[in-house]
Write a structure and sequence with these properties.
This protein folds into two domains: about 160 residues, Distorted Sandwich (Acetylcholine Binding Protein, Chain: A), CATH 2.70.170.10; about 120 residues, Neurotransmitter-gated ion-channel transmembrane domain (Methane Monooxygenase Hydroxylase, Chain G, domain 1, Up-down Bundle). The protein has about 290 residues and is α+β, with helices and mostly antiparallel strands. The chain has a four-stranded antiparallel sheet. Strands 1-4-3 form a three-stranded antiparallel sheet, with no helix packed on it. The chain contains six helices and seven strands.
Amino acid sequence: MSGTFHAIFFVWFKYYGDDDAIDIVFTNLADPETLIVDEVRASEVDGEKYRVLRVAGYFTSPLDFRAFPFDKQQLNVNFSNRTATLDQLAYAIDSDFTEIPIDDRLSTGGYAVAPINQIKNWNAHNLQAFAGSVGTLSNLGDPSAESANHGVEYSRVGAQIEIGRTVGQFLLKNLLPLVLLLCITYISLFFSHDQTTERVSFGITGVLTGAVLLSTVTSVLPEVGYTVAIEWAFYAFILLFRALYFGGADCGRLNDAKQISEMRTLDWVARIGYPVLVALVVVGYWVTYG
């Protein structure tokens, strides 16, 4: 699954010789028409050239929502040299960058005192840069390439930002109706057995309302072909509401048949099993994603 994000950042180069080092191409650019690259600083000391570029544009990065809403995403920005191959030019991460504190790395390229954490409903946790290479096993038809050489490689630099959702706000906003629904349906277990219709209707209402809430909560997601974390909780509670429906019907049947002992046993199983199942689901999510 690919996502698109807008990024504004600075990238600097220190090099000797001609300016081929700053002839770069962003390999995960989403829309070339949105790319803006401005040289904001340039200097040369004892033959060492220094260039600072301010870059703004839309980039793509693979996203995985299986742990939604507890998911953490990695947003990547990658660039390589446009013309120079790896044997002609190799990028390395400047030691000055590694000494920058994480909080300073996570300030925006548009307004230095504004943190990336201003992204709505998301928090940025880390930013790392790495150097590597990208290429192909083919010489791409280059007549000047030696026959013994196979493939063309280019030096590549990548930056990765890790962001995570503000889970507390999300759960409070989206799961509070489910919590209230759980409380209301649990109260129905204490209704008189003469109110079989009401007890059964609470189970039906729980199933239908749970399905609607699930659709609302997952509506913020793009189309994905797998089940996300929050859906398993809703499926568990929908099955619980379905069991409530059948339990209410069985209690009514036992009440009509004057099987009081069996009816009371079923009542106690339901009244104890209901909160136990809810607690198990909560603890399971806490252990897995807490």
